[in-house]
Design brief:
Helix content is about 40%, strand content about 20%. The chain is built from nine helices and seven strands, in the order ααβαβαββαβααβααβ. The longest helix is centred in the first third of the chain and has 16 residues. It is globular, with a radius of gyration of 18 Å.
């Protein structure tokens, strides 16, 4: 393992242990809802699925209802604990770019991983090679226009960071995939007037005075303006 990969492994072991092994936030919950909706639309329960960058394995608890699940991540310590929590899935620890994870998958899923790999084009190309003809990639990645409106801590040691916008993501996908859907979800801001969209108390108060639909309408508009925290992308591998 190279020094750079070792630093990344250490970072993600610590990060997952301190965050995703403890709880899920609104961002992860809404990403899960989209993924489950896309999988349900395939109307199959015998899918061969791989999740790349599964972290603590929290999504795998949902994925196993759709078929055979393989999940891989660099953070080996966290993955060992995930394997105990979700014995129905197969977990493989290692650097995705150099690890044999099999092939012939119907669906590949990757949530908030693209921004943290050194070569994004090579990463997506390898995913394409794992899929059967007509297989699907279901991807979530941080949305650069939204994140630049937030105060984000500097990357930690070993944390790579290269956010993309929807145009850059489409360009990255185009050589190997046909994009079927792409949209932003989960407005989330920690500075400026848009912080009110994060307020759970305000949403509850709006619901009590029958203005909840107005708040949800504002969030819908922000998403349509491509200012949601996450870009969701559904793409089919090119034959």
């Amino acid at each position: 393992m190279t020094e750079a990969i070792e630093k990344q492994r250490a970072f993600w072991n610590d990060w997952n242990a301190s965050t995703r092994e403890k709880s899920l936030n609104e961002i992860s919950i809404e990403q899960t809802e989209v993924i489950v909706s896309w999988l349900s639309s395939l109307r199959r329960r015998d899918l061969k699925i791989i999740e790349i960058g599964c972290g603590a394995g929290w999504l795998c608890t949902q994925l196993v209802q759709f078929g055979q699940v393989t999940a891989t991540d660099l953070s080996d310590e966290v993955l060992a604990r995930a394997a105990q929590r979700v014995p129905q899935a197969r977990f493989i620890a290692g650097d995705f770019m150099t690890t044999d994870v099999g092939s012939g998958y119907d669906v590949a899923i990757s949530l908030e991983v693209l921004a943290h790999v050194a070569d994004q084009a090579a990463f997506l190309s390898k995913i394409a090679g794992l899929l059967k003809p007509g297989g699907h990639l279901m991807l979530a990645t941080q949305n650069k226009p939204a994140l630049v409106l937030n105060d984000i801590p500097a990357p930690g040691p070993g944390q790579l960071r290269h956010w993309v916008d929807r145009h850059e993501l489409h360009e990255l996908l185009a050589p190997r995939f046909r994009v079927k859907e792409m949209f932003s979800i989960t407005p989330r801001f920690n500075r400026g007037v848009l912080r009110i969209l994060n307020s759970y108390r305000l949403q509850r108060a709006a619901d009590r005075v029958f203005l909840g639909s107005l708040m949800r309408g504002v969030k819908w508009i922000v998403n349509k303006m491509w200012l949601g925290w996450t870009i969701m992308g559904l793409a089919e591998v090119r034959r």
